[in-house]
Structure formats: C-alpha cells, structure tokens
Write a structure and sequence with these properties.
The complex is a heterodimer of chains A (about 130) and B (about 220). Chain A is an alpha/beta fold and about 130 residues long. Chain A has a single domain, classed as Rossmann fold (3-Layer(aba) Sandwich). Chain A is built from 5 helices and 5 strands, in the order βαβαβαβαβα. A 5-stranded parallel β-sheet of chain A has the order 2-1-3-4-5, sandwiched between helices. By secondary structure, chain B is mainly α. Chain B folds into 2 domains: about 50 residues; about 130 residues, Helix Hairpins (Orthogonal Bundle), CATH 1.10.287. Chain B is elongated. Classes of the chains: A alpha/beta (about 130), B mainly alpha (about 220). At the A-B interface, helix 1 of A face helix 4, helix 5 and helix 6 of B.
C-alpha cells in the first residue's frame, strides 16, 4: 500500500521540511521522519526504517550529495530511492548528482505538480524494477 | 624571455639566475625607479589608511551589526513562514471537510427535487476544493524562506570574512578602534533589530504606555 512508504525528509531549513512533510501528507503518505542534515540522517537510514529519501543538497555538516554517496556505498541503504530537492541549479551539479546515483532532481522553488510527478515516477520505476 | 621560460620550465637554476641578473643589469635603472615609485605609493596608501578611522569603525561595529541584522531577517522570515504554515494546517482540514460534507449531503438528496440546494452544495464543494488547492500553493510559496535564507547565509559568511580582514587591517594600521560617527544620523532606522537597536520600544503596549506617559 502506497501510504505505508516510509519517507525521510532532510533539509536544514525547518520551513522547507515542514512544507515537504505537509505535501506528502496531502498525497496520502503519513509515515515521515525528518532530519536537518546528512549527519543526522545517516543513522536513521542505516537503521533500515526508510523506504524513500528526499534531501536538500546545501546543508551544513554533511551536504546532500555526500549523503547520497554514503547511501549508495552502504549495502543496507544502497537501494533506497533518493530525490534531491535543492536550489542548486547548475548543469554540472545535476550531472554530478546523476553520476552519484540520484533517482530524481527537483529545483527549488518547485510546484506541487512537479514534486508529485517526480515522487510518482520514482515509485513507479521502483515497482517495475 | 623564451630562454628565461625554458630555464624556469627545466628548473635550470644557474641559467635562470644568470638571465635574471642580465635583465636586472640591462634595465636596472628602470626597475629601481619602478620599485621606488611602488614603495612610495604603498607608503602613501598606508598613511592615508591610518587617517581613515572609518575602517576601524566598520570592523568594530558596523559589520557585526550587519551580521546581527541579517540574523534577525532570517529569524523574522522563518517565524512568518511557520506562522503561515500553522494557519494553513488549521484551515486546510476545514476546507476539506466542508467539501466532503457538501458532497455527502448532495448525494442524499432526491434527484428530482431540491435543485437549488443541490446546485448550492455543488458550488460549496467547488469553492472548498479551490480553497484547499490554493492553500497548497500558499504552503509551497513559503519555500521562499529557504531560498532567501540560503542567500542571506551566503552574505553572512561574506560579511564575516570582510570583518576579519578589516580587523587585521585595523590592527596593522594601529588605528584605535572607537565607536563610529554616524554618517546616517539623519536617516530613519527602520524595524528594530534585537541586539543592535537601542532606545526602541518592544511592542505596541510599550508605545501605548509611552504615549500615555506623554499625556496623549
């Protein structure tokens, strides 16, 4: 059942975490955990209670790209789909994220439709794969 | 020059030194004149700098104040965004249940009667759905706080770097750090910034007390 998917939302801005969390709730996903940077997110991910990671890139401590690489390097977490939601909009950054194994990339500011489309697309490809 | 480059690239120290000596000998006079001019310019710049206590004032007060002001802007936008999100979270379920109630009630009405009520319920449902959709857009628009916050954080870091450079310069120049003379004394101050503004009221009740105390 779709709504049982366990999300982890990582962003250093509490407003953005709250926006994404509210939006996921609107879409029917109610199992949402939050973290404020990669360092606090990583133990949660490694504990195996996350099905879907939505993370910012520019964060103190551990930025999102480093978190993505850590996730991909650990057998426990390497298959978790990762959606980057970030203000970073340079082509080379998007390429870098893609090479690091990101599943989706949304540039802030984003619309409700864009975020929904990316989440749906990732979930559909997970279900197919 | 090509020989000099080659000597440098091949780390041929002896040739390199010889070539440099040749250049110096050939154009020794010009080089010495240039160096003298450069050192005079540096001395002038330092002398001028020592007179400019404004730099010390910037380092001592204005720059730290700018940092505090930015912090306050960050806090204000964060608070405002959270307040807006509070209200959205409280209002969205109201719109949603209104739409649902209208839908449920309309479905219980007989098809051939209550046309006016059915039409009205349809409108209520449509309006409540629109309110709900607009609230989602208002919610996403609060993302401005993240975006402006990131930019402010970048400027804050830059200001911190400028501050430490100015501190160093002030130390080098030996200027005594003293409070700035306000160049903007005639300007309005704008919103009060905690930790920066002095002599400001804290809220409207403070204003009322002050006004009442003045017999108005």
């Amino acid at each position: 059942m779709a709504s049982s998917i366990r999300f982890l939302v990582v962003d250093d801005f509490s407003t953005m975490r709250r926006i994404i969390k509210n939006f996921l709730t609107d879409l029917g996903y109610t199992n949402i955990t939050e973290a404020d940077d990669g360092k606090t997110a990583l133990p949660v991910l490694k504990s195996g209670v996350v099905d879907f990671l939505i993370t910012d890139w520019n964060m103190p401590g551990m930025p999102g790209l480093e978190l993505l690489k850590e996730v991909r390097n650990d057998p426990v977490t390497k298959k978790i789909p990762v959606l980057l939601v970030t203000a970073e909009a340079k082509r080379e950054q998007i390429v870098e994220a893609a090479q690091a194994g990101v599943n989706g990339y949304v540039v802030k500011p984003f619309t409700a439709q864009t975020l929904k489309e990316k989440i749906d697309k990732i979930l559909a490809s997970q279900a197919a794969g | 020059m090509a020989r000099l480059n080659h000597a440098f690239a091949t780390a041929d120290e002896a040739t390199f030194e010889q070539l440099i000596t040749d250049i110096y000998t050939q154009s020794g006079h010009t080089l010495r004149t240039d160096l003298a001019r450069l050192s005079q310019a540096l001395a002038d710049a330092l002398a001028k700098f020592q007179l400019d206590s404004r730099i010390a004032a910037l380092a001592a007060k204005d720059i730290p104040n700018a940092r505090l002001r930015l912090d306050h802007v960050l806090k204000m936008t964060e608070d405002a965004a959270h307040r807006t999100l509070d209200l959205i979270e409280q209002t969205a379920p109201v719109a949603e249940s209104t739409a649902n109630d209208a839908r449920t009630l309309a479905s219980t009405l007989d098809d051939r009667s209550h046309n006016d009520i059915r039409r009205f319920l349809g409108e209520v449902q449509g309006s409540a759905d629109r309110v709900r959709a607009n609230l989602t857009e208002v919610m996403l628009a609060q993302g401005f706080q993240d975006l402006t916050g990131q930019i402010l954080n970048g400027i804050r870091t830059l200001i911190g770097e400028v501050e430490s450079v100015l501190d160093e310069l002030a130390k080098i120049s030996g200027v005594e750090i003293r409070p700035p003379t306000r160049a903007d004394a005639g300007m309005l101050h704008g919103p009060a910034v905690p930790g920066v503004s002095t002599g400001t009221v804290s809220d409207q009740s403070d204003v009322d007390d002050l006004i009442a105390g003045l017999g108005i």
